[in-house]
Design goal:
By secondary structure, the protein is an alpha/beta fold. The chain has 2 domains: 3-34, no CATH class; 40-179, Rossmann fold, CATH 3.40.50. It is built from 8 helices and 7 strands, in the order H-H-H-H-E-H-E-E-E-E-H-E-H-E-H. The chain has helices at residues 3-7, 10-17, 21-34, 49-58, 74-84, 131-140, 154-162, 173-179, and strands at residues 61-65, 88-92, 101-102, 105-106, 120-123, 144-147, 166-168. It has a 5-stranded parallel β-sheet, with helices on both faces. Strands 3-4 form a two-stranded antiparallel sheet. It is globular, with a radius of gyration of 24 Å.
Length: 182
């Protein structure tokens, strides 16, 4: 006798009257529990204020891909502001081949060359220049990749999100840090 048949509950009664009913029901429930929607990765595309706040509060170490020299450029003053707000900045310039230090920190040429974990990759690259860096980002496994204001690449964002990485697009890190009071 099947366990549910002996308990006298609905499934037991159905199982006695219709012997295959419980098996069909059990198979349906198993299939329903194991199949996840194909678009579950979209949860990693962060657009809400609460999601952005969560990311910024959980972040400590930021790799800045495309950091630049010169205090009048956003690719310099945004990471400088984040550093003053208490974040550890790891410079990853695309240009400046002779630079060994930026913002008082050692320079790395790729994300993969950075020792240890990185919580966020802050991207200062044109949208069309992002795809060559996506594999490096996925291999580094940051919690988040942040495309700065004016930067949006939906196919790169989808690849990163499908790899389980949160993605923020077209938002200024400095503005969002100020918004949460940092």
């Amino acid at each position: 006798m099947h366990f549910l048949e002996s308990t006298g509950n609905l499934f037991g009664r159905v199982g006695r009257r219709y012997p295959g009913a419980f098996v069909a029901f059990d198979r349906f429930m198993t299939i329903s529990r194991t199949n996840q929607p194909d678009d579950a990765w979209r949860e990693h595309l962060v657009e809400s204020a609460d999601g952005i706040r969560r990311i910024l509060e959980e972040t400590h170490r930021i790799a800045v891909l495309g950091i630049k020299e010169g205090d009048t450029r956003p690719a310099f003053f945004v990471p400088e502001y984040a550093q003053r707000a208490g974040y550890e900045i790891v410079p990853v310039p695309v240009f400046y081949p002779n630079a060994t230090e930026m913002l008082g920190e050692p320079v790395f040429r790729t994300l993969g060359a950075i020792p240890g974990d990185v919580d966020m990759v802050n991207v200062f690259r044109r949208p069309e220049d992002i795809p060559p860096h996506v594999d490096d980002m996925i291999a580094k496994k940051p919690r988040c990749v942040w495309f700065q204001s004016g930067i949006r690449n939906d196919s790169a964002a989808a690849r990163l999100a499908k790899a389980g990485i949160d993605v923020v697009q077209d938002r200024c890190l400095l503005v969002e840090l100020r918004r949460i009071g940092k």
